[in-house]
Specification:
The chain is of the alpha+beta class. It has 15 helices and 14 strands. It folds into four domains: 70 residues, Ubiquitin-like (UB roll) (Roll); 107 residues, no CATH class; 122 residues, Cathepsin D, subunit A, domain 1, CATH 2.40.70; 50 residues, Helicase, Ruva Protein, domain 3 (Orthogonal Bundle), CATH 1.10.8. Helices cover 40% and strands 18% of the residues. The strands form three sheets. The chain has a six-stranded mixed beta barrel with strand order 6-7-11-8-10-9. It has a five-stranded mixed sheet with strand order 2-1-5-3-4, covered by helices on one side. Strands 12-13-14 form a three-stranded antiparallel sheet, with no helix packed on it. Strand 12 and strand 13 form a beta hairpin. The two termini are 74 Å apart. Belongs to the DDI1 family.
Length: 404
């Protein structure tokens, strides 16, 4: 008949023995399998100790039954040195490290199952080793807790509403975990940071990083970049160089892409995290192709190809969108608290009480500002919200929309 023996170290052994075999002979077989001396073994069946002279059939042991083997050997000093604390750390981390180092097979297995731990074992940082052992212990404890909860749910009352809700949540979470694991295995690039498309250009000899955006209707230059290029751009625009109004347009100016100059027109906006946006209007005009396979921008139907910049070549201020969005939203925001100074808005004579002030978010002027921003590619609801937030200052609202 076949019996199963589980050792104190959770090792499971399957033995094929005769039903009339003595317990002593079974222990002899176990000594070969476990290297635990016969005299140090204690066999238990249904919680009762089995004596060496007794036979398995007389004790009621049947086919496929389970026996427990406990070793009563006194732990050696080396065994104590390789034991663990309740938190999972080694009692003697130096001895534990040296023991694994001396076993090449164990090191090879560890590199397969837990390469991080193997690297720490081969290193010299015992504090890091202890911390990693504690981390692994916490992970195993959490896994055991989850398994216990799942086992408890399996035996829960099928008519218990709360238990069924927990089972439903566990099934849903298991599906999420499996989907996450599959995504990490088959589509890891989806979790990497996506760098936007930038290329090197020149506006009248001034080098800059141009953001290529086919989702923007217009090509745009930031206010700061326009001021930097001011001495050369002044002859190409029909507006005052103070750049006070949003949407001021440079009708035509040469931009250099690769080694060729192209005529370009663009708007001036106050966008802090972008200095030059190459929009759909100029992309179409110059027959540009965004080639993601070769990571280049092809201009003029392919007569010029310029590579998209790598992340290390893009200024960090362009990549830190969240910080600049906060700066844009906080710059020039109106004070709306009750302690705000209303003297500037009061009618002549200084009498503010009883005088109704016109609502700046109503009327043709407000609609004209909304229409102008919508033409730049923003949604109407987002435009109205931004204008209300910035007290109808369309330049600040545009900067906020482009910064977010």
């Amino acid at each position: 008949m076949k019996i199963t023996v589980m050792t104190a170290g959770e090792q499971i052994l399957n033995l094929d023995v005769d039903p009339h075999e003595t317990v002593e002979n079974v222990k002899a077989l176990l000594e070969v399998e476990t290297r635990v001396l016969l005299q140090q073994q204690q066999l238990l069946y249904n919680g009762r100790e089995m004596r060496n002279s007794e036979k398995l059939s007389a004790l009621g042991v049947k086919d496929e039954d389970l026996l427990m083997m406990v070793s009563n050997a006194a732990p050696s000093a080396s065994a104590n040195a390789l034991s663990f604390n309740p938190d999972g750390s080694a009692v003697n981390p130096g001895a534990f490290q040296q023991h694994i180092k001396n076993d090449s097979n164990l090191i090879a297995q560890l590199f397969q199952s837990d390469p991080d731990l193997a690297q720490v074992i081969l290193g010299n940082d015992l504090n890091r080793l202890q911390e990693l052992l504690r981390q692994r212990h916490r992970q195993k404890s959490e896994l055991r807790r989850q398994q216990d909860e799942e086992l408890a749910l399996l035996y829960a009352d099928p008519f218990d509403v709360e238990a069924q809700k927990k089972i439903e949540a566990a099934i849903r979470q298991k599906g999420i975990d499996e989907n996450w694991a599959a995504a990490l295995e088959h589509n890891p690039e989806a979790f990497a940071r996506v760098v936007m498309l930038y290329v090197d250009m020149e506006v009248n000899g001034v080098p800059l990083k141009a953001f290529v955006d086919s989702g923007a209707q217009s090509t745009i230059i930031s206010k700061s970049c326009a001021e930097r290029c001011g001495s050369t751009l002044q002859g190409y625009c029909s507006w005052s160089w103070s750049i006070r109004d949003i949407g001021s347009r440079i009708h035509v100016a040469p931009i250099k892409i690769g080694n060729i100059f192209y005529p370009c027109s663009f708007l001036v906006l106050d966008a802090p995290n972008m200095e030059f946006l190459f929009g759909l209007d100029m992309l179409r005009k110059h027959q540009c192709i965004i080639d993601l396979k070769d990571s280049v921008l092809r201009v003029g139907g392919g007569e010029v190809s310029v590579p998209f910049l790598q992340e290390k070549d893009i200024p960090s201020r362009f990549l830190d969108e969240e910080r600049f969005a906060k700066e844009a939203s906080s710059s020039g925001a109106p004070v709306t608290s009750g302690t705000a100074d209303t003297s500037k808005n009061s009618p002549s004579g200084g009498q503010s009480s009883g005088s109704a002030r016109s609502n700046p978010t109503e009327g043709p002027d407000f609609e004209a500002k909304v229409a102008k921003l919508v033409e730049l590619g923003f949604g109407r609801d987002a435009v109205i919200q931004a204008l209300k937030f910035f007290d109808c200052n369309e330049e600040q609202a545009a900067g906020y929309l482009f910064g977010g």
